[in-house]
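Lecture 7 notes: from sequence to structure.

We start with a single chain of 75 residues. Read the sequence below before looking at the structure.
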Amino acid sequence: MICALKHLLPAIENWPAEDQEALAEAAREIEAARAGHYAMTPEEEAAVLEGLAEVERGDFAPAEEMAALWKKFIA
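Now the structure, written as tokens:
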């Protein structure tokens, strides 16, 4: 382990939980890139399952709403 990480570990223990989770997420993404596999968090899996359920129910955003959204990001 590099020296910078060794020095940060004690400080990280005192970080707020949301900051620790952000760091853990970044580490998971790095690990996924190295391993070629990403394991979803339970929250991500729940969001994907909800999205699939919405598709099965036919719950889609109206075309006008989508066009306005894309316009915001492409402009």
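Helices lie at 3-12, 17-35, 42-57, 63-74. Keep this in mind for problem set 3.
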